[in-house]
């Protein structure tokens, strides 16, 4: 066996399965959806072969644009809330000993072992008018009537934050863990206040983790239709709901595919902005 064959064999063994996986589960489905987006809807559903741009014109219908705008607002607020919760929590556990770090990170990851639907239905028991949270607030006299915390945008954002918070914690932990503590000591020696050291040193050095976490939270929140279905009822819809309804209810696969392409374009734009900002793709792919 010559040297070229010796080199090719390890490459086939290591890269081959990953390449086959990506082709079968990413490339082929994407091409399939892309092709369908240019076809026509059948009279009773299904797809009729024939080229048309009407599906992409419908994407910019005012009704859909309104849903897109609401989805972007909900996703943006969800991302901001996740940052505000995850950053201090992650910074707190990064200062702990190895054993305590393991315990805290396990607390973040363990909920993934339970079905997402079960956890979301659990939130309904907490948030509904006669639920635990309203009962406690009423008992303590903090409110005079039950708050509407579910079946609206508030409930959807609570569900999204709960579901996606770990995706903000993990990349932030990676960035904060790598932070050189001697830089903070130098700031202190030079007379910088803790707030100044944070905004001048800590935050800029951990921004790659913030950007990575923001993308990992923002993009899924646009498509997590089951969260809005359970906690939002029929009052709140995100882009994922529109896509699901077109494929399942309206049976308009071409339009659903066109909206999916639109969502993919948003994803690619965000990833491109992340790369231009100096972000490392390993922070996204490693989560």
From TrEMBL:
One of its GO terms (biological process) is transmembrane transport. It is found in: Cell membrane. PROSITE patterns: ABC_TM1. It comes from the Bacteria. Pfam families: BPD_transp_1. It is a multi-pass membrane protein. This is Spermidine/putrescine transport system permease protein PotB. It comes from Clostridium puniceum. The gene is potB. GO terms for cellular component: plasma membrane. Belongs to the binding-protein-dependent transport system permease family. CysTW subfamily. The chain crosses the membrane at residues 12-36, 72-94, 106-128, 149-173, 210-232, 253-274. The lineage of its organism: Bacteria, Bacillati, Bacillota, Clostridia, Eubacteriales. Signal peptide: none annotated. Residues 68-274 form the ABC transmembrane type-1 domain. SUPFAM superfamilies: MetI-like.
């Amino acid at each position: 066996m010559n040297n070229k064959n010796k080199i090719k064999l390890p490459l086939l063994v290591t890269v081959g399965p990953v390449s086959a996986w990506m082709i079968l589960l990413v490339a082929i489905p994407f091409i399939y959806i892309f092709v369908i987006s240019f076809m026509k809807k059948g009279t009773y559903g299904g797809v009729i072969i024939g080229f048309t741009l009407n599906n992409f014109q419908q994407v910019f219908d005012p009704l859909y644009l309104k849903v897109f705008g609401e989805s972007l607002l909900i996703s943006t607020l969800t991302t901001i809330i996740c940052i505000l919760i995850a950053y201090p929590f992650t910074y707190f556990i990064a200062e702990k000993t190895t054993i305590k770090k393991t315990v805290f990170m396990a607390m973040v990851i363990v909920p993934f072992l339970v079905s997402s639907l079960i956890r979301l239905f659990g939130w309904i028991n907490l948030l509904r008018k006669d639920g635990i949270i309203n009962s406690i607030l009423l008992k303590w006299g903090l409110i005079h009537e039950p708050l509407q915390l579910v079946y609206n945008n508030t409930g959807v954002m609570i569900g999204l934050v709960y579901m996606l918070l770990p995706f903000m914690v993990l990349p932030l932990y990676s960035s904060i863990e790598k932070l050189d503590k001697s830089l903070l000591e130098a700031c202190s020696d030079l007379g910088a206040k803790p707030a100044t050291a944070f905004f001048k040193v800590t935050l800029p050095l951990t921004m790659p983790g913030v950007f990575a976490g923001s993308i990992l939270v923002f993009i899924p929140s646009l498509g997590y239709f089951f969260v809005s279905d359970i906690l939002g009822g029929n009052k709140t819809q995100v882009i994922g709901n529109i896509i699901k309804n077109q494929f399942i209810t309206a049976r308009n696969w071409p339009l659903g595919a066109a909206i999916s392409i639109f969502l993919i374009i948003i994803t690619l734009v965000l990833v491109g902005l992340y790369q231009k900002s100096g972000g490392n793709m390993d922070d996204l792919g490693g989560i």
